[in-house]
Sequence to fold (700 residues):
Amino acid sequence: MSEILTKSKTLRLALLGAPNCGKSSLFNALTGGRAKVANYPGVTVEYRKGEFDLPSGQHVELLDLPGVYGDCGHSMDERVAIDAVRGDLDGERQPDGIIFMMDASHISTHLHNVLQAKNYGLPVILVLNMMDMAARDGIEIDITALEAQLGMPVISCVAVRASGRAHLVDYLEDWGKDVLQGSAALPSPAEGRLKDLQAQARSITREVVSVIEKAETFTQRVDKIVLHPVLGPIILLGILFVMFQAVYTWSGPGIEFIEAAFGQLQLAVSSVLPDGWIQSLISDGMIAGVGAVIVFLPQIIILFAFILLLEASGYMARAAFLVDTLMAKVGLNGRAFIPLLSSFACAIPGVMAARTIESERDRITTIMIAPLMTCAARWPVYFLIIGAFIPATKVGLFSLQGLVAFGLVITGIIFAMIMAFLFKRVLMKGGNSSLLIELPSYKMPVFKDYLRGLWDRAMIFISRAGRIILPAAVLVWFLGNYPNRDSGFAGTYAGKIGGFLEPIFAPIGFTTEMVFSLIPAMAAREVAVGALGTLYALESEAEIETQLGGILAADWTLATALAFLAWFVFAPQCLSTFAIIKKETNGWKWPLVAFGYLFVLAYIAAGITYHVAKGFGWA
Amino acid sequence: MTQTPIKLGNLPKHQTGRIIGFSAAAGELETRLREIGFAEGDHVTALHFGLFGRNPMTVKLNSATIALRRREADAVLIEML
Fold:
């Protein structure tokens, strides 16, 4: 009973507004960033839910919705935002009121969106954010007059500063009470079509907004360089180059530290537990298997440190503009750049990020090619095989090993472009792709929000290691050791499965061990490395690092190794990728198409590589 | 001052025009352009162009900067100022 009472007292508010108006900064500041990421059933569009208490003790539940301009919902995440305020989200009660947020500098461009928000039938307050920046740009707003014209409360705010939020928090106390008692004023609905609302909005801004035209804002000055037709692409390439360098060079100490830690853990286990299957399961199965994956945490963190910085500073939208020309050549649009860039960490966030793309055809195409970006999970395999088979010689300034790795990444990108072209022309009809994005003003990222975002990414990766990779490692350990390991690999379940599938893969030069390692790699591509280690009966994580390469170099031919690398450019393995594709496209068709084309490409590429290499006498 | 309307996609760099309407063929694109802020009477200035064929472009619309493709810009009709 008491629970029902407290629940009914919770004030549910939705944060609505255009992209980049500062909703998430306000959300993080009010809730302390402690958010529950909720999924709309059927599609994985996320919105964040958080809670906080007003100074009076009033409990508030706040929804941070995807950015949206109007009320039509052109893309998936826009539709979720609108469904949420209309109360059409399954399992989510309609909010009690709307906090409509707007970047004060852009009031004359976006005010008609506020008029549209009056028609949701909920109490609305307008929060004008970044009033300090607007003042700096010479924009003055008569708040009292604006309130009278709109017929709703208007609060000025600087969301990133406590002093800038104080007025809003004060106001929420009184307004929140009224909202809960049902006595808050409902805005009178705005009549007319969008064109009429715009006309109304323009006449309001003419009365309440005065603009002293500044010669040039800071953002415009920076854009002159960053969006320059020649300098712009050079700067973008430079940033990407530094980012990839950082991912592979700065991560060294972190990787060594994690390796050492897992090695110590294994030592501790073997000193505590007696020899036997339990020790083997924990040490060789669990610790070695999970360690082989967690080792990539430093690279994931560095990659996202860059991506989040580029997003928060406002640069990412510029990058989308700069690559749009190239993307247009294969029939995609600039917005696909962000999902594809995230796919270099992992295709899963990449596939999900594609939901901001409005054209369904472009969204599907982007999802289809995302798995061709070299995700972090492929690197363990690349590092292992390249280290074992490619000599560490120099070609000019570059190391041969580095060039091979770079070549594999480029091959993936080239095939992504070809496949995008084919998907657009052959498989899907209709719809023009588009760009149409607002370039946000440059801003200094809020350090706390930035760290919080980075922390969330790291946690997602670690929990994945626990949920997916740990069970897979245990399974591999079992299949690789039972029923009988004494007579060698052929006596194990893994050997039997590998032997069964081998005829399929024999024409492209794969050995039984390789064939088997592809199966647990369905759980995560990088598990292939740990699986090979287990199959070649290596005892510890340290041994996998130091000895597996040597064993493979003795056991495999160069042609076989190169074929394995070619296979992993396409790597039709990762089950989680296909699962997310099924979720995002709402059916079996696209995940099956993705699996099919990746498998065919992987098989052909590995086969050609194997036979050409054999022709060179590298067998 | 009546002149033939031109497409926003043809607006020369650093020139400013006033929006007078949307092309009849724009369809749903008109809604999207309006929602993001294009409206009759607003001033637009061409700022930056992509490397090839002035595509895509960025325009200053009131205080906002919008990036859009040639095809989208061509749906906005303006008169030169």
In short: The radius of gyration of chain B is 11 Å. The interface with chain A takes residues 29, 31-37, 39-42, 47-52, 55-56, 58, 60-69, 71-72 of chain B (CB under 8 Å). The mean pLDDT of chain B is 91. Chain B has one domain: 6-80.
